[in-house]
From TrEMBL:
Keywords noted in UniProt: Flavoprotein, FMN, Prenyltransferase, Transferase
Gene: ubiX
Enzyme class: transferase
One Pfam family in the UniProt entry: Flavoprotein
Entry binding sites for dimethylallyl phosphate: 152, 168
Domain of life: Bacteria
Phylogenetic classification of the source organism: Bacteria, Bacillati, Bacillota, Bacilli, Bacillales
Protein name in the entry: Flavin prenyltransferase UbiX
Amino acid sequence: MMKLVVGISGASGAIYGVRTVEVLSRLGVEVHLVVSENARKTISYETDYVFEDVCKMATKVYDNKDLGAAISSGSFQVNGMIVAPCSIKTLAGIANSFNSELLTRAADVQLKERRKLVLLVRETPLHQGHIQHMLTVTQMGGIILPPVPSFYHLPKTLDDIVNQSVQKALDQFAIEANLFERWNGM
């Protein structure tokens, strides 16, 4: 059975994390969820969900302050982790192995164990420090996947745009959820 850690940080774009959990749950993937304090607020501010709604979709939910949680150890076997959205604060923590919270520790574990770590970095414009952190994470084996919309699938709604980015993240784990129509040429 596929097991993934999903982290939701406080960046704008909470719907990316919520939709990721929703889709993975529907597909029967075991979801281990960790949500930052700011993300809890952002979820209710930006979406029609509240934190408890998202928790109900996950297999297991961890407190971000619990550095002794199962997902803080490489011996806890998972297939990888998606952080959606990934704030610059979280990106910086991961890039510098600053593991003061469970979300960054769980991401660090994925890198040290050579498992996939996919970060939907949400910030624009970017300065050199942001880009340097993205380069550092990439050099450590992480995948930077900003939720940049494409338009070849002719999105009609905001959900269409969100779904395309979520599917791109799931593609990194070979999980097909049929969330958008793929490019087949003109």
